[in-house]
Amino acid sequence: MSDQTNAGHDNGAIEAQRAKGGFRYVEDVAPGLKLDMELNTIHHTSLSDIQEVQVIDSYFGKTLVTDGKTQSAEHDEFVYHESLVHPALFWSALLSGTTQPRPRPGAAPKSVFIGGGGELATAREVLRHSTVARLVMVDIDPQVIDVCKRFLPEWGGQAVLDHPKFQLVVGDAHEYLMKTDETFDVIIMDISDPIEAGPGIALYTQEFYRRAKDVLSKPHGVFVTQAGSADFVPHPHAFPEEGDGNDARDTTCFAPIMNTLATVFDHAVPYSCPVASFGEDWGFVMAFDGGDGEARVLKDLPCEVIDDMIEERIGMVPGVPQHRYRSMGVKRPLRGDEVGKEVLKHYDGVSHRRLFALSKPLREAMKMDKRVMTVANPVFMY
Length: 382
Hints:
Structural class: alpha/beta
Number of helices: 12
Strand order of the largest sheet: 8-7-6-9-10-12-11
Order of helices and strands: HEEEEEHEHEHHEHEHEHEEHHHH
């Protein structure tokens, strides 16, 4: 029988005991490593024809989760999406030679393809570029798009879907690029990790990258893909050692994705940024053709080059509501008509150099990983 009085009770102890019974969100990050946090709200949960789709509110704010994996969170989605989009679009502009003194009509990049991107935040970042005239996004799961439109409008939502430069195709990005007659200045792959039985594995193969290269404009075409975990100091499970008989260590794809792109393009340049809501640093690989020194030029671009391009080319996407930013580093009121540096929360000239400065332990580990991803020999993430 419950005690109906408060006599002799320690209210602090009672609250602590109640907290133990709260709901929690737990996500596997790597073998032996989990993210565990309070689960404040479940806004949505459903099962599409492709995957389980959830929107929750946790330590990192509103969060999109598919098949038990965080895709992006309110706290830091802008770090991931700005890192994925802006270096590639600015580099395409620089390769084309259409950047100075200001972007003229017809300046590159004009056409952009997104594979995946159902959250609509990648499209949001692309549409910030004044030179872009056409953006095609192909995502296989309409339910993710609808859920994000309803529950995550800050990621882009209806404002992106209604944008006159934006075309949504619900379908298979692999099939679309294999069949298209169109060319694009930039191809961005914002797709699910290459996990076994997942929908995205065919989009990480040498065969697919060869076709993507054919679809890129010449000579300023740029391909970029998210590339999974890229920890500053890789855990031993991240890179398999020959002869150890431990296949379970084969849990990351950063180096194999870079290696595979390097068999197709003149340059495959890895970079990374910390994404706290993922529980680890996250990798990307940008690929393009060009002279021997161009990868070094990309990495070492002067801060003022990036900052000037941001001022010349970047603007707000009308109608996208602002996040309830909690970090003092990004919390500021916006009117909705900002341009240049006031628009972006993360990417600028200094951040650009940080992205391409991989740690020595990670660089050394990647040198030892020679795997290449093909249809016959795929590599899976944890």
